[in-house]
Automatic annotation (TrEMBL):
Keywords from the UniProt entry: ATP-binding, Coiled coil, Kinase, Membrane, Nucleotide-binding, Transferase, Transmembrane, Transmembrane helix
Organism, scientific name: Prevotella intermedia
Protein name, per record: Protein kinase domain-containing protein
SUPFAM superfamilies: Protein kinase-like (PK-like)
Positions in coiled-coil regions: 326-387, 648-675
Pfam families assigned to the protein according to its UniProt record, in alphabetical order: Pkinase
Alphabetized GO MF terms: ATP binding; protein serine/threonine kinase activity
InterPro entries, A to Z: Kinase-like_dom_sf, Prot_kinase_dom, Ser/Thr_kinase_AS
């Protein structure tokens, strides 16, 4: 029965730094305990009881039950071979030495797949190793339930390759340090909580070329995991890196099959058959069978010779991993189709795990989503092209089928506006065409339809008013013509009263000059007078005939008609009849000539009226030509008046022609020529010129909008700038100009953001930062800028963190230093930088320790001391440095002791020889034995002095070490105190910086607020109160109190309306003032 001599729970080691909690395992060479490491602070050369931190650890105590025992104190060990005079022949010496070397080797290893050694020290006549404790860890022997009696749990091919690859990565570093593990097996591989494989137990590891007793290695060899050469006690050079390859292959076999592989001796003797892994696991490929079988060849030269060669061979199977990596990279680049193809290819090597099957399903969904997005993008581009081509209806029908977002909503609104604008433009064009055809009612209907589309178009309002006026004039002209026709018909029928009444009604509806109707009325009045005269003449003739029935007709005519000729022109016909039938008397002839003169005057009057008729027909040139033949003095004033009227009508016609030409030019968008024509009209008719100018400006507005939609911003801007401030279209033009300028700024910022994204994708963060810094904080796109800055900072931080995790500390430090102070990751980066600084120093010092250890092994103690002198005091490798210096001192002292003892022995031998020589010359005296005894006494005395001197020197070195330890503790305390002061100073500087930044931001906000107040004042002066109120509110939110001027303005309006507190204006202005004051 084995007696339990393990340490009791609560036992402390290394001056209380480590506490034993419980025994968890016992091996042939050690006790394994679960314990804690306690970090404490040093103060005034004494340890205080303040516990800074406790961390669970595993404590390994060197203990061989057959070779050692525990003293009565329950702590100190005594070894059975301590009485052996030659220390080097003691087993305990060799085991301790090997354990020390194991600790030194482990300190040099930094792989994440190797159990981390925290420290090692000698105490209680034995050696303790402290390693990290991995929570929840279990070795693969237990995890798989490996047993010789039954088949355990086999791992998936994917997991088996992953674990073996991790152990291989660990062995790359181990072999790189010229170390062979010699004990790789499932029991010595842990699986941590992250599902990573961790290699442990370097108890029987060797350094290539190290002279170690074969019996030690043989006694610790584990069947069936150890290679044949590990059992060959004759061949001291047989151990090599290929030995670990064999053990790794046996472990790989167990991972894949769940079966403990047969021992090489069983296979060689034929008592067991080595089955291929695929016999147990159908997922194992033929190629993987070949890789495993080659690893476990009995002959060392038939195996892979290096771990790199094994990994390279595994890459044939790792084509699977390469494909998986490529698939994941393709997924990162959103190349989902390629990622799915690569996963399908990888399935040819190894069946996909459930995670990868789920990943492929996810890629398929993302591919479908990507295809939908691409299809939607194509449809969106098609819609944008249709919008550019002006096909708004089809573009809108496409956009309505796309997923709804802000951009799609904007484009749909643009389509609706385009449809409305085009419809309005078409209606206006149709109306102008109808106006050209004199179809004013239809034109008015088109303008009214256009007005429904755009209620704010002032030009349409003006056109509607003009058309309504034209239609009213047309109605009046229609009535005028009807009354003229009635009057003319009545005049022809000699119904002069009816004609006169019709002419008067026509005059009430006349729209142009009333001279023609006035003449008609005058003619009608004259006709009425003449009719009365004719009636009187008729009566007079009847009376005359009655009086002179017997008189000749000519005589009667001469007497009667001569007196009436000037008053009754109708009688001329009668006179003509007389002239044909009878010879006229001289008196009658004279009257006849007078009548002929009257006829000429009547002809002149006829020509005058003919000219007026041509004028009414707008044949102005013909009218002027006819008037040129009117020479009657009595009609001179009337002719001059009619000539002026015709010339005025000619000017009006010219203006109308120019107006029509200008409208045609406007329709053709020939604005420059139209402007020149307007100058000509302005000289004649300023009112018409202003109306046409409004139409021109409106057309410019429409055309500029079209140019802007087509992307010709420059042309649109130049056209809009020609619209004057007095134009009704000016405000709308300014709005479009502002929109174009904002769009140009937004497009420029969008371009910058896209370039920055490209730079980020190319990992060119410096260029991306330079681009993004060009966008001001006030920009509407600054939210995207902030997000991109965050992306850059995150990628820089993740890249630096990745370098940190790969232990590429120098590059990681440079990467962390690139993170801007404004970044959210800056504080964390600084923490990493401080850690990296310590890690780089520790790595450098560990390299020096390694080189110094190499020099010690080569017995070059002076060079080792020179290397160690490069390591300053108060650092993380002080303990290793002290141990190595102690080892060097011990080696040098041993060397000096050997030389001193040799010199002493040499002197004693010389003395003895001299004494013997003297005695041989003399006769032998009885006192000879006494002389020999004296010599032996002297020799013993010299030995005692030497031992005492050595003990004194050891004591002195021990005192020096204790003094140095206290000095280190004091320095650590001072350093911690300085670090605390530095942290406090940094915190204060950070607070000061935050205060300054807040003050700077406050001043900046106040400046912006004052500028916004000025904008509000301008809006207020124009009567745009709601817009002004929003500006004042915005200013108050930036800097409270800056827009009290706005509140006071609305308070004044409230006072003006105080007589009627129910008025909407009173309530609205009161609400505005309160909203401004409450905005904070």
């Amino acid at each position: 029965m084995t007696h339990d001599e393990s340490l009791k729970p609560g036992s402390s080691l290394a001056d209380g730094r480590f506490i034993v909690d419980k025994l968890i395992a016992k091996g042939g060479f050690s006790y394994i305990y679960e314990g804690r490491i306690i970090y404490r602070l040093a103060l005034d050369n004494e340890f205080v009881t303040i516990k800074a931190e406790e961390k669970p650890v595993v404590i390994k105590e060197l203990y061989i039950s057959e070779k050692s025992r525990r003293e009565s104190d329950g702590i100190t060990l005594r070894w059975n071979d301590e009485n052996e005079p030659d220390e080097k022949n003691r087993l305990s010496y060799r085991i301790k030495n090997k354990t020390r070397n194991e600790a030194l080797k482990l300190r040099l290893l930094t792989s994440p797949y190797i159990l981390k050694l925290i420290g090692a020290f000698e105490e209680n006549n034995t050696i303790y190793q402290i390693t990290e404790k991995i929570e929840g860890a279990v070795d693969f022997h237990k995890r798989q339930g490996l047993s010789a009696e039954k088949i355990g749990t086999k791992l998936s091919v994917f997991d088996a390759i992953r674990y073996i690859t991790q152990i291989s990565e660990a062995l790359k570093e181990v072999h790189g340090k010229n170390i062979v593990h010699l004990d790789i097996k499932p029991e010595n591989i842990l699986c941590d909580y992250k599902d990573n494989a961790i290699l442990i137990d370097f108890g029987i590891s060797m350094t290539i070329g190290e002279k170690t007793g074969r019996s030690t290695v043989l006694s610790a060899a584990s069947r069936p995991w150890a290679p044949p050469e590990q059992y060959n006690t004759k061949d001291t050079v047989a151990i090599s890196f290929a030995s670990d390859i064999y053990s790794l292959g046996q472990t790989f076999y167990a991972f894949l099959t769940g079966v403990i592989p047969p021992d090489f001796s069983e296979v060689t003797s034929g008592s067991a058959i080595l089955q291929s892994p695929s016999e147990y696991n159908k997922d194992v490929t033929d190629y993987l069978d070949e890789v495993v079988i080659k690893c476990i060849q009995s002959k060392r030269d038939k195996r892979y010779q290096t771990i790199e060669e094994f990994l390279f061979a595994l890459q044939g199977e790792d084509d699977y991993k390469v494909l998986i990596d490529k698939a994941q990279k393709a997924e990162q680049n959103e190349e989902y189709e390629q990622a799915i193809h690569l996963l399908n290819e990888s399935e040819k090597y190894i069946p996909l795990s459930s995670d990868l099957l789920e990943l492929r399903y996810e890629y398929q969904n993302k591919l479908k989503q990507q295809q939908n997005e691409r299809e939607n993008k194509q449809k969106e581009e098609e819609a944008l092209k249709l919008i550019h081509d002006g096909d708004f209806e089809n573009a809108l029908s496409i956009l309505e089928l796309l997923p709804f977002n802000a951009h799609i909503r904007q484009q749909m609104e643009k389509c609706r506006q385009g449809i409305s604008l085009r419809k309005k433009t078409e209606l206006i064009a149709e109306a102008e065409n109808l106006i050209g055809k004199k179809q004013y009612e239809n034109a008015l209907s088109k303008y009214q339809e256009a007005k429904v589309i755009d209620q704010s178009d002032v030009a349409i309002d003006r056109s509607i008013e003009e058309l309504q006026k034209i239609l009213q004039d047309i109605e009046k002209n229609k009535k005028y013509n009807e009354f003229i026709a009635i009057g003319d018909k009545a005049f022809e029928d000699n119904e002069f009263e009816k004609a006169l009444e019709a002419y008067k009604l026509a005059k009430d509806n006349v729209t142009l000059s009333s001279l023609t109707i006035d003449k008609r009325i005058e003619t009608c009045v004259i006709a009425l007078s003449e009719r009365d005269e004719r009636e009187k003449a008729k009566d007079a003739v009847a009376n005359a005939l009655a009086k002179v029935k017997d008189k000749p007709l000519l005589e009667i005519a001469e007497q009667e008609l001569a007196t009436e000729i000037e008053h009754n022109i109708g009688k001329l016909k009668l006179i003509e009849d007389f002239r044909v039938k009878y010879a006229l008397s001289d008196a009658f002839h004279t009257e006849f000539l007078t009548s002929q003169a009257r006829v000429k005057e009547l002809e002149q009057l006829r020509l005058y009226f003919e000219a007026k008729t041509e004028n009414d027909k707008r044949a102005y040139d013909v009218a002027l030509k006819v008037l040129a033949d009117v020479t009657s003095p009595t009609l001179k004033e009337s002719v001059i008046s009619l000539q002026k009227e015709i010339k005025n009508a000619q000017e009006i016609a010219k203006v109308e022609a120019l107006e029509k030409e200008i409208k045609e030019l406007i329709k053709k968008n020939d604005f420059h020529v139209a402007k020149n024509k307007l100058i000509e009209i302005e000289k004649v008719d300023k009112l018409l010129s202003a109306s046409l100018q409004t139409t021109l400006d409106h057309k410019k507005l429409i055309y500029a909008t079209s140019l802007n939609d087509e992307g010709d911003c420059k042309g649109a801007i130049s056209l809009l700038q020609t619209i004057g401030a007095q134009s009704p279209s000016y405000n709308e033009a300014q709005k479009i100009l502002d929109a174009i300028n904002k769009k140009k700024v937004a497009d420029n910022e969008t371009t910058i953001i896209e370039q920055a994204k490209v730079a980020i994708n190319k990992k060119n963060y410096q260029a991306a930062t330079t681009l993004l810094n060009a966008i001001p904080n006030s920009s509407t796109s600054y939210g995207q800028v902030t997000q991109l800055f965050s992306t850059i900072d995150k990628e820089l931080f993740d890249n630096a963190k990745s370098l940190f995790e790969r232990q590429d500390w120098q590059n990681a430090s440079n990467a962390f230093n690139k993170i801007d102070k404004k970044s959210a990751y800056y504080t964390e980066a600084q923490r990493y930088i401080r850690t990296l600084k310590q890690s780089i120093e520790t790595q450098h010092y560990q390299k020096i320790i390694s080189d110094a250890l190499q020099k010690v092994e080569e017995k070059k103690y002076k060079k080792a001391r020179q290397l160690l002198a490069q390591i300053p005091a108060q650092n993380s490798v002080d303990e290793e440095k002290r141990e190595l210096l102690q080892k060097i001192a011990n080696a040098e002292n041993g060397k000096r002791n050997k030389i001193g003892l040799g010199v002493i022995i040499f002197i004693v031998v010389i003395v003895i020889l001299l004494v013997i020589g003297l005695l041989s010359k003399r006769e032998i005296q009885p006192t000879q034995p006494a002389s020999v005894e004296r010599i032996q006494t002297e020799i013993e005395k010299l030995k005692a002095d030497s031992i005492a001197s050595e003990n004194a020197r050891i004591e002195e070195e021990k005192n020096r070490a204790e003094t140095a330890k206290k000095a280190v503790q004091e320095a650590q305390f001072r350093q911690e105190k300085e670090d605390k002061a530095t942290r406090e100073q940094g915190r204060q500087e950070k607070e000061d910086k935050a205060t300054r930044e807040q003050e700077r931001q406050t001043a900046k906000n106040k400046r912006r607020a004052l500028a916004i107040v000025e904008e509000g004042n301008k809006l207020f002066s124009r009567g745009e109160y709601d817009a002004a109120c929003e500006k004042y509110i915005q200013a108050n939110r930036l800097s409270y109190g800056t827009s009290n001027v706005g509140a006071s303005k609305f308070d004044e309006l409230v006072q003006k309306l105080s007589f009627d507190k129910e008025a909407p204006g009173y309530k609205n202005n009161m609400a505005r003032a309160n909203k401004i004051r409450n905005a904070k």
